[in-house]
Amino acid sequence: MTVSEVKSFFYDFQLTMDKILDYVVTAFPNNEIVYWPPGGSRVLVTFSQFADRVRRVAAALMDLGLRPGKAWELGSKVAVLEWNTLRYLDLYYAIPSIGAALFTVNAMLAPKEIIYTMGVAKPEVFVVNIDYFEPLLKPILDNVKSIKAVIYMSDRGKQPSQDYGVRMIPYEDLLKHEPLREFPEIDERTPATMLFTSGTTGPPKGGYHTHRGLVLHTLSTALAVKNPPVNASQDDVAIVLVPMYHVHAWGWPWSTMLNGHKKVVYPGRFDWGHILRLIHEEGITFSAGVPTILYNILNHPDSPKYDLSRLKFIVGGAALPEGLLKAAQARGMTVISGYGLTETAPVLTIAYLRPDHKDLSPEKKNEIYLRTGIVIPLVQLRVVDEQDRDVPRDGKTIGEIAVRSPWLFREYIGDPEKTRNAWRNGWFHTGDAAVWFPDNYVKIADRLKDVIKSGGEWIPSLRLEDIISTHPGVNLVAVVGVPHEKWGERPIAIIVPKPSYESRLTEDDIKNYLMQFVEKGEIPKWWIPDKVIFVKELPLTSTGKVDKKILRDQYKEVLSR
Amino acid sequence: MTVSEVKSFFYDFQLTMDKILDYVVTAFPNNEIVYWPPGGSRVLVTFSQFADRVRRVAAALMDLGLRPGKAWELGSKVAVLEWNTLRYLDLYYAIPSIGAALFTVNAMLAPKEIIYTMGVAKPEVFVVNIDYFEPLLKPILDNVKSIKAVIYMSDRGKQPSQDYGVRMIPYEDLLKHEPLREFPEIDERTPATMLFTSGTTGPPKGGYHTHRGLVLHTLSTALAVKNPPVNASQDDVAIVLVPMYHVHAWGWPWSTMLNGHKKVVYPGRFDWGHILRLIHEEGITFSAGVPTILYNILNHPDSPKYDLSRLKFIVGGAALPEGLLKAAQARGMTVISGYGLTETAPVLTIAYLRPDHKDLSPEKKNEIYLRTGIVIPLVQLRVVDEQDRDVPRDGKTIGEIAVRSPWLFREYIGDPEKTRNAWRNGWFHTGDAAVWFPDNYVKIADRLKDVIKSGGEWIPSLRLEDIISTHPGVNLVAVVGVPHEKWGERPIAIIVPKPSYESRLTEDDIKNYLMQFVEKGEIPKWWIPDKVIFVKELPLTSTGKVDKKILRDQYKEVLSR
Predict the structure, then answer these.
(1) If you write DSSP's letter for every residue of A444-494 in order, what string do you get?
(2) What angle do CA B296, B301, B305 make, to 5 degrees?
């Protein structure tokens, strides 16, 4: 039989996101999804009812004339600006399932940046929560001419307050559509989502993730969280606290359903008092988010009222501080780290335990939880030097994390230079500096651009900041590298003192404090900053991080003067 | 950036089996593999040491000049004839990883059939355990001229007893080779294994499974067995009791490692006394196999000496009899069904529980375990009538199971008619008759060719055999359909009575016995066979199943006479 004869009847099963929906509704039809926004009422749908919603929304979107994409080629884009709602969950499944791309608009960006990213993405349809975001609607429509229809959503039956000169469709109309019977056949390399990096070094850069990437990411993360200490199971009740406008909410909207968790909860707009009540009333046992989310759960005034001892939590997006881990453990929680980027869909590593860790002491286990983790299935990871050679797996030598996986950005749209710079020698370079342990776990040391290169060796600014921040007189600290004639670069520390220390904290205080860590063998002596500068405030980026670029520029001559 | 520019540096991650090895050795380097053959000594290697073995074997095989395959195109084939050993495990990873195809020779076939399948497969290298199979070597080499080298294996340091006129390499030499540093890049659609169906209706038919299919099958089965009641975890100790020459030992050699089980045990040649000792001494908690394997574990004379209460067992390959389930449960075991075919790599369904089953009574749970199960991720399954329409999901109407998945035979090599017949309307037809329940679980009723078509309705021979076999006077029974003028076909029962009943069991006894089940509403009255025939023995196929083809032929005129 020739290849063409076989091709005529063989069904070449594509890894498309509708297959995930099809599986979960077949295997777990009676599992539950709860949507309960702050001040609103509780909505419960089964997976089976949910699939019906998705099929209605998908059919209604097809009626709007959206074009499906092809392999490596974006189809129509549907922009969504919304909190963590059941409606957003509908769209997570419905938009990709018809071959269009879900473009998750980052609600935390400044309006100017939202308009910039939408102008680059050129969505044809804009789905927006008008309870919160109606003021953005006019400036967006004025600037983003690709938008042909707006689908508006509200928890309160709100109607648009004016005529925007474009077709306006209430979201509820989508749910009245006849359900789509069969999802169209789509090549698995068709883009399913479009995302922008947060862009601390210039404007946000867009890219896309394919169906294939997301299906495999879903299978792999689902498997990885079944390792201890999380031991995810059907008995778990999950709440999705990673914003759905932020890297697919790390894929939880898909993987929690694949894992058959008996209930998955969506809290609407983030309101920590409300979320604590949900954790209690819905019996939540599993969640994830950036350290700030965990911080809020632990430190909200209502927090002490609630039992958090059943809650397992994966921290990603930034390093898990040891103090936060211990505060969570003091409440009985299980907390571990994970790691990934927008470009990586996002999950690359999770700090799960393995069988030979079973009998470790709690302190030793904490050392593992505080690492960035170990690869999940289908991720290959190296820590490399500037010539792309593996650095020693000694837990000390810093290198850059480079990865291979089916769920990586293939390119930064419209930025060949950035694309080429990331994809070198067949490996995607993350721009994250890390150390590699003999047991294959990694720990992020720094963003690569923030690492200080002194005499050919790397000094991680984060580690120095961690130590300096434990000095009782320090409120905020940034360590950056500045040019040095002999060493190339040397570290300096810029410190905002606590008010009570403002007039008395000295450069020597800080250097002597650091010497104690040198004497304990925790850092080498040559890491001690050449200069300590005291300021009233530190410059911040739009997302609230210290803007080290400005600092490096401002103090670039401080060691040569 | 144009597509060709992007292609030049983007790494298109292929789903190849070396990625599974790479993951398990990175994530679980210190997990253990134990090989302990009957009468031999215990060998323990860590996953890390195992990966080193695989890289040595792979490099040595490459030196033999094996050709890698391409997408949908077999490369060189390496035939293996061996029991469940560590060596076979090496080969499960090493042969596919270099792009060659692992051809698992079925040790249970008659020598003539072994030679037939090897003649079709045309392996270039033959890896054979000469402790057991040396007598086959000469007839195989005389008939299969493609074999250029023989690699011989022995647990006892045995050397070949004669010169076979072909290059003979001891397996140990492979392990002395320098390890392969990097596995070659292979298209994920390259065949990784070559298998033959058991072929109850003609000569065995060959086909292949691709890397892509096996990687996805591994991920999906690994996820599925983490559902209750199996709840597979790192704490489990698995023993591979499915013969490795039989459909990839259902994929356990790969999925048990992916799931990070702290230890995986290989028992060598099947010896039930030895296996029971291994279950005890190695602390086995997880295994799988055909009903006969479970039967042997429970009924071996030594069995009562051992505690089986921690053992979880998945039965596949044939229906799980209720009596066997209850006997295993009486020993404290957890047993559920699974289902698949050689053509499906093999797993399609497993009878795992879902959250809404948690509070079911033990009897209701048993009903689920006795079903053939529910799909695992990335399997789409329908039960269809002869026009490929879904049959009602009523638990009664019989149809044929048709499936879609990434891990199906694309074709039967050299048999376009059989290929076309299986692949109809984009679905692979399994030839298994089943009923479909409202909750999406399926239960096999019969092989489609054994189903009796009476008056346009289907009667499952297996169900009638199940009931008749519970009559105290019945030793063996086969129910087949024979031509009938009015109804098309009607069932007849052919019975081997127990010796004590030989002269007194009558046709009426059987019919009256069946009437009790009609009265209880368990079967319809029109299922009662038109004729009951008593015989001394039943004809068997080479694999020990009742040969219904011969019976249908022998009694084809019994209702028209």
Answers:
(1) EEEEGGGSEEETTEEE-HHHHHHHHTTSTTEEEEEEEEEEETTTEEEEEEE
(2) 100
Q: In this predicted model, what pLDDT tens digit does every residue of A273-320 receive, in sequence order?
A: 999 999 999 999 999 999 889 989 999 999 999 999 999 999 998 888
> Minimal Cα–Cα distance from B92 to chain A, Å?
19
Inform me whether the C-beta atom of residue A184 falls under 8 Å from chain B C-beta atoms: no
Number of Cβ pairs < 8 A linking chain A and chain B:
162
> What is the pLDDT at residue B188?
98
Q: Are residues A348 and A461 in the same domain?
A: no
Contact at 8 Å (CB) between B214 and B251?
yes
Q: Which of A22, A358, A405 minimises the CB distance to B13?
A: A405
Q: What is the nearest CA distance from B410 to chain A, expressed in angstroms?
A: 6
What confidence score (pLDDT) does residue A456 get? 76
Q: Measured between CB atoms, does A28 come within 8 Å of chain B?
A: yes
Q: Strand, coil or helix: what is A306?
A: coil
Provide the chain B residues 457-476 that lie in CB contact (below 8 A) with chain A.
none
Chain A from 253 to 282: CB within 8 A of any B CB: 258-260, 262
Residue of B188, B282, B343, B465 with catalytic role: B343
Q: Which residues of chain A have pLDDT under 70?
A: 1-8, 199-202, 542-544, 561
Tokens of B418: 């059989």
Phi, psi torsion values for A287, nearest 5 degrees: -155, -175
C-alpha–C-alpha distance, residues B130 and B155, integer Å:
9
Active site residue B537: no
Shared-domain flag, residues B356 and B490: no
Instruction: Find the CATH number of the domain harbouring B405.
Output: 3.40.50.12780
Q: Which of residues 520-539 of B touch A (CB under 8 A)?
A: none
List b or e across A32-51, with b for residues whose CB sees 16 or more CB atoms inside 10 angstroms.
bbbbbbbeeeeeebbbeebb
Torsion of CA A278, A281, A285, A287, to 10 degrees: -10
Q: Is residue A491 part of a domain?
A: yes
CB spacing of B416 vs A31 below 8 angstroms: no
What's this model's pTM, rounded to 2 decimal places?
A: 0.91
Tell me the shortest Cα–Cα distance from B19 to chain A, in angstroms: 6
Interface of A with B in 329-358 (CB under 8 A): 353-356, 358
Residues of B in contact with A405 (CB under 8 A): 13
- Asked whether the beta carbons of A477 and A535 are under 8 A apart, the reply is no
Q: How far is A442 from chain B (nearest CA, A)?
A: 12
ipTM of the complex: 0.90
- B4, B10, B263, B343: best mutation site toward chain A, by most A Cβ within 10 Å? B10
Q: pLDDT (tens digit, 9 = 90+) per residue, A20-55?
A: 999 999 999 999 999 999 999 999 999 999 999 999
Are A416 and B260 inside 8 Å of each other by CB? Answer: no
pLDDT for B542 equals 64
Task: Answer whether A404's CB lies under 8 Å from A213's CB.
Answer: no
Q: Is A458 among the catalytic positions?
A: yes
| Same domain assignment for residues A291 and A326 | yes
**Considering A436, A471, A494, which residue would you say is the last residue of a domain?**
A436
DSSP string, B52-104: HHHHHHHHHHHHTTPPP-BTTB---EEEEE--B-HHHHHHHHHHHHTT-EEEE
Same domain for A475 and A372: no
CA atoms in the 13 A half-sphere facing the CB of A158 = 16
A409 touches chain B (CB under 8 A): no
Cis peptide before A346 (omega within 30 of 0): yes
The CATH number of whichever domain residue B538 belongs to comes to 3.30.300.30
Name the nearest CA neighbour of A490 among A448, A461, A517. Answer: A461
Over range B33-53, report the average pLDDT.
97
Ramachandran assignment for A268, one of left (phi > 0), alpha (psi -120 to 50 degrees), beta (any other): left
Strands A191-196 and A206-210: antiparallel
Residue B278 covered by a domain: yes
